[in-house]
Design brief:
Elements lengths: L7 E12 L2 E12 L3 E5 L6 H8 L7 E6 L2 E2 L5 H7 L1 E4 L11 H9 L4 H14 L2 H5 L10 H14 L4 E5 L7 H16 L3 E5 L3 H7 L2 E6 L2 E7 L3 H9 L6
Parallel strand pairs: 3-8, 3-9, 6-7, 7-8
Antiparallel strand pairs: 1-2, 1-4, 4-5, 9-10
């Protein structure tokens, strides 16, 4: 845990969550400080995506305590959490294919006032690379998957999140496109946003995240600095016991 940081962006205390009869989280306990960057790792079905869905209000807490940005939010609606500064980028997030890049950004950046929306839109456009900025009136359906993901991440940053939850942001992308997406996430970290990244590749998270939490069957079985690649790998392969 980042002991020097006193404010918690996200706290799970013995949290259980399920989809019908299927139990996805089985007493998850974990804490992420405001401004901290943490990778969530684990095999398929470990509860990684459910962690993000619970934190963003898409899946309710069955039991246990959940707090986001210092507020108890066990059954808080997703739009309320979004207004608090929670942004969730689910796996494979895309754009509205029939709308232009700029129109998609307008929908995504949000803002309480017209001036805030204009400022955030300008920030989002400024965060795009030169090619995408020059194609701002191009329909999103004409972009590559990597370009769409980069636009979505850039829009998320322009929304000025306090907690950003990203589910496998580079999944299916080329190495170059994945690097661009992770560079954008690095900017969020550098701006002090609490960052939670669900990943499968250890080489990507080591330079972006300060910590890594390994989940297994809906509980945290390992929590260490992301540089402890050997310990993380042991936890992922099951050769290390619960810590």
């Amino acid at each position: 845990m980042a002991g020097a940081l006193s404010v918690s962006a996200l706290v799970f205390q013995d949290v259980h969550a399920q989809y019908g009869p299927y139990k996805a989280l089985n007493g998850l306990t974990a804490s992420i400080a405001e401004g901290e960057s943490v990778a969530i790792l684990g095999r398929n079905g470990a509860g990684k995506s459910t962690l993000a869905r619970v934190a963003s209000g898409l899946v309710p807490v069955a039991s246990g305590h959940l707090s986001v940005l210092g507020r108890s939010v066990a059954r808080t609606a997703p739009h309320v959490l979004a207004r608090m500064g929670v942004v969730h980028l689910p796996e494979g997030v895309g754009l509205f294919s029939g709308l232009t890049i700029e129109e998609n950004l307008v929908l995504r950046v949000g803002g309480a006032s017209r001036s805030a929306r204009r400022r955030r839109l300008a920030m989002a456009l400024g965060g795009l690379n030169d090619e995408l900025r020059s194609r701002r009136r191009t329909k999103a359906g004409l972009l590559s998957g990597g370009q769409q993901r980069l636009v979505a991440v850039t829009a998320a940053l322009a929304a000025e999140p306090r907690l950003l939850l990203c589910d496998e942001p580079a999944l299916g992308l080329s190495p170059v496109a994945g690097d661009e997406v992770y560079a954008a996430l690095g900017r969020a970290r550098d701006l002090g946003c609490a960052l939670v990244v669900i990943e499968t590749r250890l080489d990507r998270i080591e330079h972006l995240c300060s910590r890594a939490i390994v989940l297994e069957k809906g509980v945290a079985v390992y929590d260490a600095t992301s540089s402890d690649q050997g310990g993380i790998l042991d936890a992922l392969t099951g050769s290390r016991g619960v810590s």
